[in-house]
Write a structure and sequence with these properties.
single chain, about 375 residues, alpha+beta, eight-stranded mixed sheet, four-stranded antiparallel sheet, 10 helices, about 20% strand
Length: about 375
């Protein structure tokens, strides 16, 4: 990542633009017409718009009734294959912790700009307070700010890069990250079982519990005077393994591609949104799908969401699991480390599924 040392243009905080009272967004945030959101997807009827991603109750995994456990596992398997997204409830992370996480980060983004600027990030690591993804000069930008930090492996934790204000923030980051990483570990075992692999096989492919990569990106989407012209986050698939998203409880914004349409996710109270990343698509030999998603802007309300990315150890080669490679289904992807892989999105920014599709090697 050493080639990515500085941003190509001066950084402008989107929150500052929004709070300045502008009635028209600057040109560098205006998406090409084909990329702009619309109220309804093309060729879509109202019934289709009401579709939501699957909602799965995890409490039955602990039930003594085997049939209930099997039903839950099948629901997860179907969601991974058909949607690449699902919501989980009764997941073991306390509602109080989820609320504190959202409230604390909303408080951070409410701090004076000069306080937040102390944590300004660089594209070499992205760690800190940021306002753009990708280093291409002249790129059309997204209507959002964010805060990015590393949690795993432990050797990458740098508490000096975590906000000192609000005073509860650093302790909250530890508590929240520990709980969500634990939940991701549980989900990895379920995904592995559903593929017919050993329970720990996917986790071991990521480097094991002590070596996995985990990072947190807190997204702040300021209200926007022209939400029909821009996006809070451009369409993309996540480059990592698994993403656990704590959405804003009051304002929907995430949209998931389903066929030719975009489905707006309706967050369920106290649920996490889970989605498959590109590394999981590679490991599963495309049995599980990473799916394009994006975030729309809102003209009335700000939004805060927390995305925990659960990734492979950065220098491990990721390739389709041997058991999932057969004569009828050869390996679709050549081996590549996560470090090599994520350089693409750190250079280009969000870019649909261009990266993972470019890796296919139909041998």
């Amino acid at each position: 990542m050493n080639c990515l040392q500085s941003w190509p243009e001066p950084i402008v905080r989107v929150q500052s633009l929004a709070e300045s009272g502008i009635t028209a967004i600057p040109d560098l945030y205006i998406k090409p017409p084909a990329k702009r959101p619309s109220l309804l997807p093309a060729n879509c009827n109202q019934a289709e718009v009401e579709v939501n991603i699957p909602v799965i109750d995890l409490q039955n995994l602990l039930n003594q009734e085997e049939s209930l456990r099997e039903t839950t596992l099948r629901s997860i398997s179907s969601a991974c294959r058909e949607w690449g997204f699902f919501q989980v409830v009764n997941h073991g992370v306390s509602e109080e912790l989820m609320k504190r996480a959202r409230d604390t980060w909303r408080e951070f983004f409410g701090l004076p700009l000069d306080v937040k600027q102390e944590y300004s990030n660089k594209p070499s690591t992205y760690e800190g307070y940021g306002s753009r993804l990708g280093v291409e000069k002249g790129a059309i930008l997204d209507w959002s700010d964010y805060y990015f930090l590393h949690y795993m492996p432990a050797s990458l934790r740098n508490h000096s890069k975590w906000p000192a204000l609000p005073s509860s923030c650093r302790k909250l980051i530890e508590e929240y990250s520990e709980a969500t990483v634990r939940l991701c570990g549980t989900l990895m075992k379920l995904l592995s079982q559903n593929l017919g692999l050993e329970e720990d096989q996917l986790l071991n492919a990521f480097g094991g519990e002590e070596n996995i990569g985990a990072c947190l990106r807190v997204n702040f989407y300021p209200k926007c005077p022209q939400p029909d012209l821009t996006l809070g986050l451009s369409e993309h698939s996540d480059p990592g393994g698994l993403t656990l998203l704590l959405p804003d409880e009051n304002v929907a914004g995430l949209q998931v591609r389903k066929g030719q349409n975009w489905v707006t996710v309706k967050p369920v109270p106290n649920a996490f949104i889970v989605n498959i990343g590109d590394q999981m698509q590679v490991l599963s030999n495309a049995i599980y799908k990473s799916v394009e998603h994006r975030v729309i802007a809102n003209s009335v309300k700000d939004r805060v969401s927390l995305a925990l990315f659960y990734n492979p150890k950065s220098d491990l080669l990721i390739q389709p699991a041997k058991k999932l490679v057969t004569k009828d289904r050869p390996a679709l992807y050549a081996p590549m480390t996560f470090d090599q892989y994520r350089l693409f999105i750190r250079t280009k920014g969000p870019c649909g599924k261009a990266q993972v599709e470019s890796l296919k090697s139909y041998e």
